Predict the structure.
Amino acid sequence: MAQQFNSPRLQEAEIFTLVSPDDYIDLQNKLITFLSLHKNSELSSEQVQTKVLNAQPDEFAKHRAELFLRIYFACYEKYEEYLNDQRMYDFADMINDATRIVSEDRTGQFKYQYILVDEVQDLSQNRFHLIRELLRRNANCKLFAVGDDWQSIYRFAGSDLTLIQDFEQYFQLKTRQSLIETTHRFGNPTIRTSTDFIQRNPLQKIKDVRGSADKSTPINIILNAPEDKNDDSNSITKILQQLIATQGYDIVKTKEFQIISRYNHDLRRIKNSAYFRIRDGTIYWRNPADATQILKLEFCSMHKSKGITRDIVIVLNLNDDLMGMPAQRETDPIIDSMLAHSEPFAFAEERRLFYVAITRAREATYLIANYQNPSPFLYEISSELRNTRNELCPKCESGELKLKHGPRGDFYYCSNLRHGCDYLRKV
């Protein structure tokens, strides 16, 4: 974090020396995210400023937002100037300009009988406006949209889940809905476990997912030893050696492996350099028991894993922590003010992200967590873990009831209190 300073005479060069490299990267990422949200929103700069400042809860937050906007708009103007000079478009420009061209057209050239939209749960407002404008120009046009509200994980990029949840209301069309409830990617118990998990949120669409009766895809939970709190290397080695022992190296080496985690920087949790080599996101593992046995494992974040299928999937850092799963780091209020409305169910989008991560494997999924603080999501999907835990909160069904001694008597509260669950029960 940047150091605090009070001297009014501090020069700009001196201020920058007090800022760490991580602060620069954090600000850069916020500016990039904000730029994407701004352009996808189709709001003018004046409207953005009003929207952000009005959303701040107090004067300090408002002053902080004003400082951020001052930096942002300076960058935004230079960015737009660069695009114009280079005669370039970014993706938001293409969508927004296409919408304007269609809406202003007087030639009737945009005639379509059918419009097909994939991943409709990821629609942002500007993409929705383009589709709606095309439909307005073609009274008899048929819209065919495919999406899955269980996999809506891009709110940070401007997607609006209500566009699929209230589809008829937004598109103002008579619709017929067909549910795709058969999967050929994985079998039970993954189907049953993942379906029960995602449908704990009552706002998610109810579906009866089925698979091939003869296909089995287990989910296994591996708990790190206490000394491996920040290192998942030994647990990965344990998984790979077990696979080799049961199936043989010649079979295992033909399989596709994917390592997934909430954040890209979780790759640092693979620390045992004696048996692991990491190059450009690819992990090479050498068996400690036989140096001739080498396996290749790809790495990606949970967001990037959406859409992929692999034989074996290993998920790292499933810990109850600030940067674990669910991620408890709050969205910056400046960014949050530009996002689609939040959901009342605790960690709704993190729940969908976890669902995506545990449904990528054809053969088996392995979930790695620390022994002391496994993710509350793991307690939900594992009866064995639940038996080692205190009573679950009956309201959010993910927090643990904690005993508190108060001046008016003893009571239980939910461990998710800081995340919005207000359940209380007198002893």
